[in-house]
Amino acid sequence: MQPILILQTGNPPRAVSERHGGFDAMVCEVAGLSPQSVDIVKVYAGERPRAPGAYRAAIITGSPANVTDRLPWSVESAGWIRDAMDVELPLLGICYGHQLMADALGGRVDYNPRGRESGTRWVGLADAATDDPLLAGMESAFPAHFIHEQSVLEIPPGAIVLAANAHDAHQIVRMGPRAVGVQFHPEFTAGVMRTYIEQLRDLLAGEGADVPALLDGVREAQASNSVLTHFLRTYAAR
Question: What is the pTM of this model?
Answer without folding.
Answer: 0.97
